[in-house]
Amino acid sequence: MRTRLYLNLGLVYDSLRDAGRRGRYLQRSVFVAERARLDEDLQRAYFNLGAIHLRQGQHPQALRCLQRARDCVGLGTAPPLPRRLCGRQALAADGVRAGLAAAPPAAPRAYAEALGRPAPELAAIHVSLATTFGDLQEPARAEHHYRQELALHRGDALEEGRTWLSIALAKEEAGEPRAELEACLGTALERAEAAGELRLQVRARRRWNRRNDRGETPLHRACIEGDLRRVQLYLKQGHPLNPRDYCGWTPLHEACNHGHLEIVRLLLDRGAAVDDAGGPGCEGITPLHDALGCGHFEVAELLVQRGASLAARNAKVSA
Known about the structure:
single chain; Serine Threonine Protein Phosphatase 5, Tetratricopeptide repeat; 3 domains; 17 helices; 66% helix; elongated; repeat; ANK repeat; nucleus
């Protein structure tokens, strides 16, 4: 665990162009891996050191590091990567002065691409960096790397779903507007459904259906704000139709109260409870009472057309 943490910190400081700290953490990673005989971690550390030296045009140092990474192959736990390592060694031995040596310093993805790493490995680099920035309480930078990872997973519904969920959590940590967070969670759920991954669907839906301090669900808030597109999205993705906030109001109550005619129509089309009298503290107020009380007569007319009771009374009206 420590050796990977040191490696991640080294890569973070490399992206920040802090050569001193980068070197200290990468050397610590090598030291711990050698002492504990962690062949896979040692291979990874030398591989990244070699990549950094190669990017900086330090070909002899790059060759030595990549040879050491190659030597880790077959020592027990290290994965078999001889072809890739040989390719790096060839680049280092030949100099690659016309390309990499002349290239400006770049972020991990850029130099990894220059070294010809495959997309899954590039994605793993970004996940590692995003996780480290999250641990350092820098969610904006974490989100940046998650989005870089997302671009590498294009077309893979399962990985896209996982990455969108990670982006949503980074946004939540950064305190960004709830609407942005919900949009990411909605996309995560959509991709999880496309992949048929039930466990990821449950995780995304659990975060997506979280309530605010008034007990309002995302559907409540979309109805209050009059955001028809979000209402359509939530219903398409299986959001509960008649949840109550802590006072007892349903999304249909809120849409009627704020006069959002098309949202009311959509909720009724989906089967919303037209005569719901609210919770115990709502005094028997139905959506029709809300619409009439706020002067939204077109909404009231639609409710009546859809079967709303004209005889329903609230608690303030005596029998």
